[in-house]
Design brief:
alpha/beta; Rossmann fold; Ribosomal Protein S8, Chain: A, domain 1; 3 domains; six-stranded parallel beta sheet; five-stranded parallel beta sheet; 15% strand; globular
Length: 382
């Protein structure tokens, strides 16, 4: 069995070599010639998979190590009898932890507290729900918007988007869709930004094209937004350098790039593929992750505000400002080299472990601090 895989899928060769011959390629360079005699294709979001890519191939199974599937023509795969799997949910906790790190970092810079502030979460799927849980643990007031889920469940917790416009924070967690009543392409347009509460803080970790970049830049220039956090960009990897220079935190599409999340995605594809072909599985995530760099921490309040302590703890596990700093080096590159630099940041992204891998010991135990830390994912000694 011949398996073609994006070289950026972690441990893909170690995991899948027991099932066949694995050949690795940069995701943007996987072409119809690459997959002609392949049985399996494993991709990430940068490789469009459709009839143009696969029509003359032998591919029988496609897997994407991503939650989103807008780069996959799923209907074509179904019609062609090609098996399919995505890693939906695998990186949800990683993205939610990124949001927590971003919220705390921005709050610190702007000398405000998250507790008591309202946050509107647009898109309440796997990621949005985890973001909601963690924001609730940080004592924020959570407002959810998800029209498809509202229609399906009739649950009143899903509010019309207009009811989120008065929130202190807005964060996007929608798929990218181009038509229908739930179209999300340029969901955040000029009207959207003009309607938000003045000095709202805006975050996007969904897909770049959910936001109209020109409208966002206009909103920033007008002073309507207090702060902006962007992990995703229109026209990746050739991102808008002017926009990068305007945002408070900018990162190279790595919110879901915790090692735990990436490995979980790989294992998900591995297990579904084994089931599809009737093969026995031999790998689990624990075989690949290894020990965390920060297995435990001792902390104390010592008169500090609890949010500041949480911020200090998170910075020792994941310093989001370092990711921001690394991306800003792109401004020093010539225009022709910026796309490659963006992709290299993603390809060579350092191992980032999730909060669940670190156990916290609080000196002079504080129940409220413990509750916050447990709520965002840490293990806490009682």
């Amino acid at each position: 069995m011949k398996i073609i895989a994006d070289e950026n899928i972690p441990y893909v060769k170690e995991c899948f070599s027991s099932l066949g011959r694995v050949e690795l390629f940069p995701g943007r360079k996987i072409t119809s010639d690459t997959v002609t005699d392949a049985d399996v294709l494993l991709v990430r979001s940068v490789t469009p998979v459709d009839s143009h890519l696969l029509k003359d191939s032998k591919v029988r199974f496609v897997g994407t190590a991503t939650a989103g599937t807008e780069h996959i023509d799923v209907e074509f795969l179904r019609r062609s009898g090609i098996g399919f799997a995505s890693a939906s949910g695998a990186n949800a906790n990683s993205v939610a932890e990124y949001i927590v790190a971003a919220l705390l970092a921005v709050a610190k810079v702007h000398k405000t507290k998250l507790a008591g502030k309202s946050i509107g979460i647009i898109g309440a799927g796997n990621i949005g729900n985890k973001v909601a849980d963690k924001c609730t643990a940080l004592e924020m007031k959570v407002c959810l918007n998800d029209p498809p889920l509202e229609r399906e469940t009739r649950d009143m917790k899903y509010r019309p988007i207009e009811q989120l416009y008065d929130c202190d924070f807005i964060t996007l967690h929608t798929p990218l869709t181009f038509e229908g009543i739930d179209k999300t392409f340029h969901l955040a347009d000029r009207t959207f930004f003009n309607t938000l509460k003045n000095k709202c803080i805006f975050l996007n970790t969904s897909r770049g094209r959910v936001v109209d970049s020109a409208a966002l830049k206009s909103a920033i220039k007008s002073g309507r937004l207090r702060a902006v956090v962007l992990d995703v960009w229109e026209n990746e990897p050739n991102i808008d350098i002017e926009l990068l220079q305007m945002v408070d935190i900018g990162t190279p599409h790595i919110a879901g790039y915790s090692l735990d999340g990436k490995v979980a995605g790989t294992i998900t594809l591995y297990k579904v593929m084994c089931e599809y072909f009737g093969l026995e599985t031999g790998f689990e995530a624990g075989n690949l992750l290894g020990k965390p760099k920060v297995p435990q921490l001792k902390v104390t309040l010592q008169g500090k505000h609890r949010e500041n302590v949480v911020c200090e703890i998170i910075k020792k596990i994941y310093n989001i400002c370092q990711d921001d700093s690394n991306l800003r080096w792109i401004c020093d590159k010539t225009q022709g080299k910026r796309g490659a630099f963006f992709d290299q940041l993603r390809k060579n992204y350092p191992a980032r472990r999730e909060f669940k891998n670190t156990r916290i010991k609080i000196e002079k135990t504080d129940a409220k601090l413990a509750k916050k830390l447990e709520g965002i994912g840490f293990l806490v000694d009682k």
